From TrEMBL:
Organism listed in the record: Argiope bruennichi (Wasp spider)
Protein name per UniProt: Uncharacterized protein
Domain of life the protein comes from: Eukaryota
InterPro entries found in the cross-reference section: Serralysin-like_metalloprot_C
């Protein structure tokens, strides 16, 4: 003998501790959710996204699934060719900077990694602290002035 509420729970809704959803076909007793029953999520903690092809259960993101990011912490940028996983920047990928901390300038030939300046690279200054003037012949490193 049962009350109206008990009969409802025992006979219609929760006969073996099942939830409303699984009884009408949109959820299962093994802790499956509504989503996984209709094909947009699985019981192994998969999300909606990974079920429809834009994310995987191994903690991949939406981006890496559609080809602009990888599971090894790659970003969207490095996947489309303007950045690499070894901490390379956008610049070094397109040829104006290198991973060994080179700058844009030294990559295009107006500066070197040994702390040379723009000027010494284009021939009007040297790394041994020579000035512009002594490089173009109107002054020397031994403290001569431009005039002498």
């Amino acid at each position: 003998k049962c009350s109206e509420i008990n009969c409802l729970l025992i006979g219609i809704w929760l006969p073996i501790a099942k939830i409303h959803g699984e009884m009408i076909g949109i959820g299962s007793p093994i802790a499956k959710t509504h989503g996984e029953m209709i094909g947009i999520g699985s019981p192994i903690v998969k999300t909606h996204g990974e079920m429809i092809g834009i994310g995987s259960p191994i903690v991949k993101t939406h981006r890496e699934m559609i080809g602009i990011g990888s599971p090894i912490d790659k970003t969207g940028r490095e996947m489309i060719g303007i950045g690499s996983p070894i901490a390379k920047t956008q610049g070094e990928m397109i040829g104006i900077g290198s991973p060994i901390v080179k700058t844009h300038r030294e990559m295009i030939g107006i500066g070197s990694p040994i702390v040379k300046t723009h000027r010494e690279m284009i021939g009007i200054g040297s790394p041994i602290v020579k000035t512009h003037r002594e490089m173009i012949g109107i002054g020397s490193p031994i403290d001569k002035t431009g005039r002498e």
